[in-house]
């Protein structure tokens, strides 16, 4: 799953008043459509290697709900649409940490060569470092998760402090269709 840039995360946090009221902010990500060519198919692991239009490669695990995976072959064209959304919520002091993940897969109606996969993860992260000289911010969370990023808005850094805790929820969805399969 992709992560938000530190700049966006910090802007969302900085716009929150420093009070005990529950504060949340939604950062809507881009919807990206990619057309890619199948470069390799691994039937046993249900993985497909794709070459995107920009020449980069990506390996996708195709869920069992995609019925025509066994007909996929090198040279086929896939159309993939990605969507992501991030919700940040400043936590109340003493509020319990969270670390949850959920996933879903939905095949297209009528046995079409398409389907949607979605995943959502919510974690509690703590601001562990702020460096006004760079300027940058660092978050840490469960399972040794750590994220650092430069921050463009130096005024935003003044509105958060080391030790502030935030729930971060990432939602990502992928709609995939096999263009050349019949």
Order of helices and strands: HEEEEEEEEHE
Q: What class, by secondary structure content?
A: mainly beta
Structure annotation, total helices? 2
The separation of the N and C termini measures 30 Å
Strand content: over 45%
Overall shape: elongated
Note poorly predicted spans. 1-21
Could you say how many structural domains there are in total?
A: 1
User: How can the largest sheet be summarized?
Assistant: 9 strands, antiparallel
Q: Give Rg in angstroms.
A: 20 Å
| Total beta strand runs | 9
> Mean of residue pLDDT?
77
**Helical amount among residues, as a percent range?**
under 10%
Describe it:
This protein is mainly beta. It has one domain. The protein has 2 helices and 9 strands; from the N terminus they run αββββββββαβ. Strands 1, 2, 3, 4, 5, 6, 7, 8 and 9 form a 9-stranded antiparallel β-sheet that branches. The longest helix has 9 residues, at 6-14. It is elongated. Mean pLDDT is 77; it is low at 1-21.
Q: Quick gist of this model?
A:
With 182 residues, this protein is mainly β. It has 2 helices and 9 strands; from the N terminus they run αββββββββαβ. Strands 1, 2, 3, 4, 5, 6, 7, 8 and 9 form a 9-stranded antiparallel β-sheet that branches.
In terms of topology, how is this protein built?
Layout: H1 6-14, E1 23-42, E2 47-52, E3 57-61, E4 77-90, E5 99-107, E6 114-131, E7 136-140, E8 146-150, H2 154-157, E9 165-178
Antiparallel strand pairs: 1-2, 1-4, 2-3, 4-9, 5-6, 6-7, 6-9, 7-8
Q: What are the key terms here?
A:
2 helices; 9-stranded antiparallel beta sheet; 182 residues; disordered N terminus; elongated; mainly beta; single chain
